[in-house]
Amino acid sequence: MTKNSKYYALLAFLAMGAVCVTSCEDEDSDELVGNWVNARQAMGGSPRGGAVSFVIDNVAYIGTGANTLNSLGRCRHSDFFSCTPVLGGGRKGAFEKVGVAYSSSGTIAPMPKFNKDGVVCSRNGAVAFSLNGKGYVGTGYNGNTNLNDFWEFDPKADFDASAYRSASEEDKRSIETSASYPWKQVADYPGDTCRFAVAFVIPGTSVMSDGTVSQNTRSGKDLAFVGTGENCIGIKKNEFYSFDGEKWETVTSIGMPRAQAVAFVAEGYNENGQLQLYGYVVGGMSSSPIIGFQRYNALTDEWEYLRDPADKTVGFLGDDYYKLALTGSTGFVVNGREPYSQRAYLATGGPYVLGLYCWEYNPYKDSWVQKSSFEGDPRRFAVSFVLQFPSPFYDGEMMDIPFVTCGTTSTLNVSGGFGLFFDDTWFFCPNESREPLD
């Protein structure tokens, strides 16, 4: 089910839709692999774009974001909802047991209304990640200013959701500042206040898909890396910082400044032919959309250029331009059962015109393959997460299932209320044949 915001500019949307149909539906889907399936479960809160998500102990947490309050303004959120894997999704075939269940409203503590400086905490265009069993959310835009505050979420905190919901606004503020509240403010992001940055987490050590053990960071500690974005006047940033849950340190900048890029963590070969984990950043918007693709080596603190999403000549307004220039897209990584089967995926988004395209990246070959397009409405600023389900093929084993939800047709500019906002949820079967509208 999709719930669109009640208020939008009809003529603007129809004009955008007319352009999108001509630019986004030119693929021959019969030749592409991958099947998008409607999970028939709407995200627990209001439809929104520019939200964030992180996963802790196979539970996804989705929150913040913006939608349309009226024809001229925005409503930004600080609420959060959990999403857990459930059986009985009602679909025939290999994934008939796949389903999701969102928490009901108010069961997950919202971010506090104000930060330590008295600034409103509701936001869109933030970053989020999980680190050492806790979730982190920071930066973004609250409707008046860009932010650099950062917050830590403890899923094990002793929080009485019922008492919080029934409390007065004054008492809610008191609860939000108590030691037992799940959210607490941590060290501010050391860069400029910004929105539309990226974040990824690289474990200090890990067992790779070929069974080898790799040290991935110089300290051997799990580290988050946050960078890029744009400040209040739209100046794009290239700075990057590492975060260990307590303190920030400067690392090498990515090079070209950008905002609205996509980041993920996946395996890759180092210069010695051994596997280790890298942070990958692709696309984004600088003075124009960026086609480039880079990976970050946390052992050497170096960035390396990789192959672009396709080896094609890209025209300024040609179809390839919209396929390859990824802005406001969402990315996720799926681990296969066999060695060397990990794959990364980028879906939706696009500069100027909304795209439905989905690309698969093979980190072992540094190669891209186009997959079947996303089957929901065209959108940007969606969120994705990966949950594990019991495998229908191998008893006692778990398998990764990726989900995409939320998003908007809006650019989420500082002002203006135009656009549609979504809360439908889809899961993706990358190796199945496409079945329209299943």
Number of helices: 4
Query: Overall pLDDT, averaged?
Result: 86
In percent terms, what proportion of residues is strand?
25-35%
Overall, the morphology is: globular
Task: Report what the structure shows.
- It is globular and about 60 Å long.
- Mean pLDDT is 86; it is low at 1-29 and 311-319.
- The protein is 8% helix and 35% strand.
- It is built from four helices and 28 strands.
- The chain is mainly β and 438 residues long.
- The strands form eight sheets. Strands 1-28-27-26 form a four-stranded antiparallel sheet, with no helix packed on it. A four-stranded antiparallel sheet has the order 2-3-6-7, with no helix packed on it. A four-stranded antiparallel sheet has the order 8-9-10-11, with no helix packed on it.
Secondary structure layout plus pairing:
Blueprint lengths: L9 H15 L8 E6 L13 E5 L2 E5 L2 E3 L5 E3 L3 E7 L12 E4 L24 E5 L2 E8 L4 E8 L7 H6 L2 H8 L6 E4 L11 E5 L2 E3 L5 E3 L7 E5 L12 E4 L4 E4 L10 E8 L5 E8 L10 E5 L4 E4 L13 H6 L5 E5 L8 E5 L10 E5 L4 E5 L11 E8 L7 E8 L19 E9 L5
Fill in the keyword field for this structure:
28 strands, mainly beta, 4-stranded antiparallel sheet, disordered N terminus, 4 helices, 438 residues
